[in-house]
Amino acid sequence: MPRPDHERRPLTGRRLLRRLPGRPATAALGGTVPRSLPRWYSWVYAPAMPPRPSPSLAPTVPDRPSPSPNERSGAVPVATVHRLTHPPPGHLLPPDRIWYASYGSNMDAARLRYYLRGGRPPGAARTYPGCRDRRPPLRSEAIEFPGRLYFATESPVWRGGRAFYDWAADGSVWGRAHLITAGQFSDIATQEMYEAPGADLDFTEVLADGRSVLGPGRYETLVLLGHLDDVPVLTFTAPWHLTEVPLTRPSGPYLLYLARGLLTDGVRDAAAVALYLSRCPGAADAWSLDELAGLIAELGPGPARSS
User: Which domain covers residue 124, as residue numbers?
Assistant: First the structure.
C-alpha cells in the first residue's frame, strides 16, 4: 500500500518541504502560479518524492558558489526552505513554535545566546536585555532559501555594514534556523529593533500574506520563508531592497560570526563559505576572496563548534 504524501521523504538526502494535496508538481520546476496569488510566491516547494532533477530542469541560481564536498556527498543534509503558495491547514493560527531563520551574526550559537540570556558580547558596544524565556533553541538546522544577503547601513555594534535579506532578489541565502518559542522570536526581533522586549508580536499578517511590515526601520519587516517540519520559518529584515540603499563594507569581526555560524553544522567548508560571502553585495567590492579566506582561517581547521 503506497504511503500517503505527508509520510514520504525525498530520496536526495535533503529535507524538502512537502507538496500540498492538489498542487501540480510542475510548479516546482517553474510552473504557472495562480493569478489569485502574489507574484513573489513564484518559488514553491518540490514534490514529495521527486527524482533527482537533471541539470536542464533544475532551477538555476545566479552567482551561487559551488557546493562543498559535504554538500555533494549528501553526508549532512541541508534543509531547503522554499516560499509556499499556501500555508498548511491550521497555520494561520498563532504558532507555539517558530523556526527563526538567521542569516547574520545570530547564525552563531554563542552570539545568539546574548539575545536569549542577555549580556554584552566581547568587543560589542551594546548590552542586550535578553528574552523573557532564556532557554536555548530546541534545535538548530542549516538551511538555504531564495533571495540575497547584502550589507548596508552602519552598525554601532560592529562598526560596519549590517546583514540584510532581500526576498525579491535573485540568488540563494545560506543560514541557520533555530527552533524557538513564538515569545522568544518576538523578543529577539524586538531587540533587533532597539526596543525593550516584553510583548509578543502579531503574526497574523505574515502567516497569511507572507510578509508583515511592522515599521519603516531596520529589521522591522517579518518574512515567511516557508515551513519546516510543519513549523513556520520566519525571519526579519528591512522593508527596502538592496538596490534602494547604499551598500556598506562589513567589518572583519562581524564576518567571522557569520562564517562561524555557517561552519557550525559541518555542511560547508571554509572555502565555500569564503566564496559565498565574497559574492554578497557590500562585501563583494570591499573584501577579496583571498582576504576572506585568510580571515576565516583564523577560526582554525574544521567546522566551528559553538557550545
Answer: 1-307
